[in-house]
Amino acid sequence: MAIDLTTVPLHAARWTAAIRVFVVVPALLAALVVSHRPARHAWLTPAVFLAATVTGCGTVAIVVVALAMGVPLPYEGTLLLPIVFYLLIGLPWWWALAANLLALVMFLVLVPLVQPDRLVLSYQLSYMVLANVIGACAGYALEHRARTNFLIAGVLSELAERDGLTGIHNRRSFNEHLQRAWAQAFREGGSVGLALIDVDHFKHGGRDCVVVLLNPDMEELSFPTGREALAAPAAPRPGGGSARKR
């Protein structure tokens, strides 16, 4: 806004500054308020999307208004919109795509009406479309990589916390849960109950039968009763050396 008032002729600066102050800034402030209120985090993505859409369309409107008044403002700021929307503000890809397309359509429709130089117009339109295509591809690749890494991390975590023979939680998972349960009981002034169960004839019927028949019973044993009980996610198998021997 300060740049507009100091470098742009006054008759155009009043309009461009007004768009920034009364359109763009309120949308950004609304998204900022929502992001700092945990109770409203469910509205965070729509709020950021709305702020991005208003910011993008407002930026295009500033360029269009200035051109209509004979002030050729640099349009390069609109080229930054795809980078910001796809890569910097954390919007899901489809939301970022929608926000970018709205600003792009507005640019493609309005700028040709006020840009007298056809050569400059052709470059502007080409660069805007190219910037959006590059931003969309980069944003999609980034989100795909993030989702893939999340799934891989989940699988590795599951493998690290499960016993290979029975599929129930292993000693490592047991230790981690015990620490969490102990800390929770300490905070809430509760108690921790621990039951050690020795299953006889663990390998009776063969390894496959053990997994099929005993595992459901073990999972059922993992949920203690009572309101004060701190239930484990699953019954752990702290040992395991002898069960793996044939």
Please characterize this protein's 3D structure.
The chain is mainly α. The protein has 2 domains: 156 residues, no CATH class; 81 residues, no CATH class. Helix 3 packs parallel to helix 5, helix 4 packs antiparallel against helix 5 and helix 4 packs parallel to helix 6. The longest helix is centred in the middle third of the chain and has 44 residues. The radius of gyration is 30 Å and the shape is elongated. The termini are far apart. The C terminus is likely disordered.
Q: How large is the count of helical segments?
A: 8
**Strand elements, count:** 0
Weakly predicted, low-confidence segments? 205-234, 241-246
- Report strand %: under 5%
* Outline: elongated
| H and E order | HHHHHHHH
- Radius of gyration equals 30 Å
Report the span from N to C terminus: 77 Å
Helix content: 55-70%
Overall structural class, as computed from helix and strand content, comes to mainly alpha
Number of domains: 2
Blueprint (SSEs and pairs):
Layout: H1 2-7, H2 10-35, H3 44-68, H4 76-88, H5 93-114, H6 118-161, H7 171-188, H8 207-221
Helix pairs in contact: 2-3, 3-4, 3-5, 4-5, 4-6, 5-6
Quickly describe the structure.
The chain is mainly α and 246 residues long. The protein is 69% helix and 0% strand.
